[in-house]
Amino acid sequence: MPVDRFLHTPLQLDSLPEPIFHQVRHMPANTVYLPHQHLWGEFVFSFSGVLEMKAEGLEFRVPPNFGLWHPPGCEHHGGNTHASLHCSLYIDAALARERGMPARTCALLINPMLQAILNHLRHHPPQSPYTVQESKLLDVLLDQLVASPATGSYLPNSSDGTLVKVLNYLKDDPANSQSLSAIAEYFGTTERTLARKARRDLGMPLSEWRQRLKVMRSIVLLQEGMSVESVALDLGYSTASAFIAMFRRLLNTTPDEYRKQQSTL
Length: 265
Known about the structure:
Structural class: alpha+beta
Largest sheet: 5 strands, mixed
Distance between the termini: 30 Å
Mean pLDDT: 90
Shape: globular
Number of helices: 10
């Protein structure tokens, strides 16, 4: 049977009511964000699950400790399979340029201060016209965004024929435990060649890309209610502790802590 989809209507204004305008949204499962663009920039942060968007010919899959920045005029679209809670920070185009926000769509690493401010605004969303204190807090938030490391797409892709085949092979089976040398041989190349192409196109070792793929998959499984032990086995780990260590390294929290955070949303 076809899945009922919810079509999200983007913010439709001639101008922003505030130079930095904040909104929080609860979105149902199977929401579709149709292609749209704004005269202003937009920073999106998901409090639950993976943020999935497409922009500038690229796919962006962003885990919970990252946010996604769309510069002014950039068309973007996407959707979410599961119900989600996220916020958008709309930033006046001139202000975004003046403060030095990135000129391209990219994922931004969220530091603890940013996380704390975003959580505060989630529970206490400002209502326009903003008070002086609210405007100052949003200005601090923008300062922190400007200073945040940009990572492009958290799970980047490639246009190289061989590397694309390898990445798709791993996406089809995140639990794949084959060595990189065995995978390279399977695709008629060498581990050294794959390593060079990964550095060039992905900006990281293929081993790091594989772990990012696993953590993205684990977020979905945890949201579906699977136990940590089951998720670990489903992703090819021989022990739950190895999976927990990987999850903590990439997301700065444990799977159980992540699940508890989700239950409070």
